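Handover notes (outgoing to incoming on-call)

Open items:
1. AB hydrolase-1 domain-containing protein: sequence verified, structure written out, both below. Nothing else pending on this one.
2. Nothing else urgent.
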Amino acid sequence: MSYPSVGGKSVTNTNYPGIQDPGTIIETAAGKIEYGTAGEGPVVLVVHGAPGGYDQGLGLARIFTERGMRVLAPSRPGYLGTPLDTGRTIAEQADALAALLDALGIDKVAVVGTSAGGPIAYTLAARHADRVSCLVAVDGVSQRYVIPAQAGKVEQALFLSDFGERLVHALMAHFPGLVISDLLSTEGYLTSKEQHERVKQVVADPEKLRAVKVLCNSMNPYRLRKAGVDNDLIQLAGIDNLPLSEIKAPSLIIHGTADADVQFRDGDHAASTIAAAQHLWINRGTHLCFWLSPQATEVQEQAVAFVKAHMQ
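AB hydrolase-1 domain-containing protein structure tokens:
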């Protein structure tokens, strides 16, 4: 069902089983783009990782809505309701985000890019500098990427299939520690002792446990995200040089030093190449350190403070 309700553009509401927040598909100059939004105030554009979708952006960026900002979370091409034809390459996806801002009548945003969304966030800031007030990259890819060896066949079967996601959902309901332990072993270079302690901390912390549930839920149903994941792997493996040196916006690069998915060197590379970059390294932080590390609350508050200081 379509509604001509956004700047005269025809939009369509979307609903998916298991996804609490409805999405909206709008026609842009780049093609159809699905997005979700939450909160009120200056706009923070969240560029999700892989797998993901607008639901991941909304769920993992809740700290910004709780601090008086509006989160705009699109589904990148190939994820949920955004067709892959809207933009396959990193540059095309960055341009599509600018087209989304045009369609919604939004002039300027803070950009938060996570994981596989990092290259798109970086490229958006470089190609559309007038639209980006500041940039935060959370364990973002900044160089050529291939699936790490730690993401073995079992982990891929669990997190990159519909059957696996149903199993993960059931395990989260009754044995969350098992899922968290597997996530941390795949996403981080932790010792057995560190991993054991980290699992206990996450299970005992309602906000950290919520973040794990959001992450797991935002991979399901996988069949509606597979095209995006497959395309991401092609695009990320083909990265030569991202236009990092062209970024002028104030930038905060956040990365865990024990990230086994997107290596710490990616964060270091971005921080040393972007002229206006600050960095925040999370000691012994895994790929999920922004949400699950012992320092997560402090780091999130620093990210919010950075965004608020630079938003217009």
